[in-house]
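Hello K.,

You asked for the raw outputs rather than the summary table, so here they are, unedited. I folded two proteins back to back in the same session to keep the settings identical. This is the first:
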Amino acid sequence: STQLFLPSGLQRQPPPHRPRVASMPFKVGFIVGKDTDVVEDPKFTDMGGDVSFLADMPDDWRVDPVSHEYLKDCEPGTKGYVHCDVAIAWWIKKNCPDIEVDIICGPGDITLKRLQSNDFNFTLGFNAVNLMVANNQETPKIMKMLATCGNLAPDWGFEQYILQKSNYMKDCMANGVPMAPTIFSLKGKRSPEGLLDEIKARGWKTFVMKQSESGFSLGFCKLKVEECETDPSFLTTYFKDYKHISEFVVQEAVDGFTRNWETRCFWYNGEFLYAIANMAAVSTEDGAERIITGDDIPAEFLENAKRIGKEAIKCLPSLQVPGGGAVPMVLARTDIGCSDSQLYDKDLNWDPTKKTFFLNEIEPSSTTYFVRHLKFDCIPTYGRLYAETARKMKARMDLNVAPPMKRAAAKRVAKPVRAMKAVNGKKGKAKAKAATVMKVMKATKRR
């Protein structure tokens, strides 16, 4: 059986709670765009996934598996399937009457007016990475809308923190999170010759290059130092083809990465939800990628992935609320690799005879959730979690715009509590003051 770890208060949930709507529903946008996380799929339903709640969903938001376009943009009669970002949004629409759901298909449906018409917008399946990968004439315009709308969740600052990989990687390194030896090659300060010299000075034999502002393994390559010395065109061509990329992330190649499971842990509110582990196609006998989850993941890999992922998640900022304040972060994913052989970095002390687990990347809420590979139906879980975050954000936003008199009243109510917490020899005075406050309160009550 699969062990599912849910944040406190969500374990052993009863049937979906439908809050009493005491006022007008608040509006939440869900920016969607997934085409690799299908829910309407035999693999999902065979393990017990429920898709019955999708029966009345308009076909517009289903995705054509051939063109990868939403059916609203396809020829009439095209068949498509729901992916998890739309499924989560629709689940909330069906089960949470206090939330008015606006499903926004990225990039075509994104406008500044529409984004700002909602209280806030979750980037559930589409974000800045998708725009950078597309990198077309619409990219700057849509990027500006996301950057200036002021109500993304996660907020634009967090988007940039994750998009520019050196931000969170440097923070993780500073906090002792193990990572492969890394060089950040910055636009305007890099050259093929300079990078190769730096790599050789570190003692590396083989290295990999990937990019900030990218995804889906685009721009990834693995090179040998000896080959680059013999034929400099490898690096020269790479620098020319990707000159627009602000940052190359260059790391010593970890051979164990292809032999061992990469374990991806999913976190919500900073708490562990579940994990999947995958092994690269180059490492399997049949040449196909393998994905496992639940108790099929070897305990050594799962426990070390959770241990390292927990420390990495601590480095992330909280989810900023429009207008001020913060709530715990929505979904984030930590990808943990395993080294089991010799590395040559001059400053590294990993034992080549033992497994060393390390953080490879952190992914934001728009990442792949692997819903059909799990042993439980995660859609209701995510529906409840995102709905609860939405309510917390709305409550904080309402507090931000509360009339000054209400804020002042809240401060006055807090004064007796502060008085009772006096320390350093002032306990007697604090108790006397608290007693006086209580007498006044009782006298007022008798009136």
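The second followed immediately with the same parameters:
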Amino acid sequence: MKVFAMTGVWQACILCVLLASLGTSDALDFGDLTYFYDNAKAFFFGESFAPVSSNGQTPGQSPSTRQTRTGVTHFNNVTVIDYMQDHPKVRIGHRVVDLFSGWHFDDILMDSPDEIRPPSVVAFFDSSNPKCLASYKRLNFDSIAERQLPARSRLFTARYDMHSAPKRPWYEFTPEMDLQKRFNVQSCPEVVFTSSKCDGMTEWCVRGQDEENPDLVVYGCDDYKESCPSEYRKVWDGKTNLVEWINKLVEDEGVPKLSEFLGSYEMQGRWMKEREYTTSNTHFRNIYMAQAFPAFTPRGFKAVETPKEVQDWLLSFRDRQSRRRKTERWNTVSTQMSFHEHPSTFIDMDLERAAKNAIANKYLKPIVEEWSGIAPLELTAFYGIREYHENSFLREHIDRIDTHVLSITISIAKFNEPENAEPWPLRVTDFTGKQVSYAPPA
């Protein structure tokens, strides 16, 4: 078994196991998309640690620090890559969504089940090109989306700034993220209509093994599998009436199924809009917040063997308390997990609070202190075992910055895994800006 520890990396644990609080100087951890197999379960647990000084207060910076262009001081002379460049401000919550990337677009498509997902229309423009920007403004795209196009339950509307999208992220902007190239956008502005058959399940390209650590796989290259191929896309010719063109394509798509749970198309559209906002906010935080907090280690994560005492206790706890597992309930507009389609189950470790705290402080805290170079640490959370079932995923996200700083993910066990099944990796955006994954050998 492996302990997977991380700081500041966004996209770290797919299993969302949390560890620490450092006030306003939180490092950040994230989850990522992972798929599980038929009749399979994966068990994970989480906890939190916070640095404290000898007088019980959060300690100041260590003598060995490095300050970034954003004014953030990293510990231990750590250097974090920063690809971000100047760009126009982004907006969230509009009828026409500002897309950060193709990744963002894919996630919004995934937010709606196949049978109720509407088609989409995306307006591409270049904010650095005066001629293109003027032509885009003459389209009055925001206005027609609000007044002349179908409601959200029938159509998702978005815009994509081809100048700004590659400049916003602090991490490497991979081909999978480049929606302009994915959709082969040739003119400016250009309006692309996509079918509801586009499901967002783009398969990322494997670049190869990591140069520093052969146990890691690097993602992001041109040989990806597009989830919205050319046969599912149509491009406006720039001459016909734009509103009529879009409305005709929406009509040709047919009416999406009405969810029995939501009850009306008005409620269905509102639900989609709220989930769309959650996903957009997640991507916003992923892009901007990681550079706003200090890093502790060069890559932001490390995989080590789980202490035998910890592994044995966790498995025995699971056996003792398995009858007290509960199905997790989350807000319906949350999009970080696939709990609506594939509910996760949970065994609360507060059932044996004293024992679990003793295990964490004796065996896990020293690992985190040695890895981060920060001591002493205080345990702030060790909350339980989550069971992920077939086709579950936990999307990349930043956890609460007031309570989660130094995190551990422990892969406890995998049950009923098919023979020759692909690994269930933890994917990380490390401090070099690369997308890497690690498959824990549970």
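The longest strand covers residues 377-388.

Happy to rerun anything if the numbers look odd on your end.

Regards,
P.
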